């Protein structure tokens, strides 16, 4: 059975320098966020990044059960990454895979540095990520959504965390790998950053690059991250501007009505 919905072309970058989805080397896939999509969670966010559709929910800070897992000086952060059985072309087994266990840890470790963990002693924050559709770079898209879900839960953050995968495809460094580029390319370099401080919280690397290519890839990733960061902030503003305007408090709209 074919691994992809369509045959993998011989060349992943054409003679005009365009990728299989017609992007330039430095273009992100279309990306959109929605904050506050799950009423049962303390915070939540949904992301579409290319063909990825991912939802993240946050519960907490809340009491730790069992109590002996609690930390006296900070909160415990847990993350759970799961792919729906229908998220990939060939039905995925519902049993948690080793990859899902690993990505849960990667997501947790990428987000923890952004949280003021010492503000919430003896508590637990649960981050749950569900991949509804996967299209390469799900760990980065999950981090982008989960970071917004944490903000939506009102958890004190040093900064949002923004993430993207850079890679090497047909010998070229390209931004934001899609599924085929991820699987068929020569290198995959997912990064996550707290953009305000240019502080990395994730840097993984799989494949081959020269030192120069590696530095180019990091710079290209950081450029992409600035765009993602802006969109994340816009998504938070969109939710809270809406709530504020519905709270009856003075807003731009109400001010106009009062005139
Ligand atoms: P990431 O999603 O962060 O890039 P991987 O490199 O492990 O993580 O996965 C690359 C891509 O492979 C995923 O985004 C997804 O599109 C695809 N993939 C992952 N697991 C499966 C699976 N069980 N079956 C088919 N495709 C998968």
What does this protein structure show overall?
By secondary structure, this protein is of the alpha+beta class. It has a single domain, classed as GHMP Kinase, N-terminal domain (Ribosomal Protein S5, domain 2). The chain has 5 helices and 10 strands; from the N terminus they run E-E-E-E-H-E-H-E-E-H-E-E-E-H-H. The protein has a 5-stranded mixed beta sheet with strand order 1-2-3-5-4. A hairpin with a 4-residue loop joins strand 8 and strand 9 (199-203). The N and C termini lie far apart (66 Å). 39% of the residues are buried. It binds adenosine-5'-diphosphate (ADP). Adenosine-5'-diphosphate is lined by residues 88, 90, 92, 99, 134-139, 179, 182.
Number of strands: 10
Q: Report the mean per-residue pLDDT as an integer.
A: 93
User: From the helix content, strand content and strand pairing, which structural class follows?
Assistant: alpha+beta
CATH superfamily: GHMP Kinase, N-terminal domain
State the end-to-end CA separation. 66 Å
Q: Which fold does the CATH topology refer to?
A: Ribosomal Protein S5, domain 2
**The number of domains:** 1
Give the helices and strands as they follow along the chain.
EEEEHEHEEHEEEHH
The CATH architecture classification is 2-Layer Sandwich
> Major sheet: order of its strands?
1-2-3-5-4
Helix proportion = 25-40%
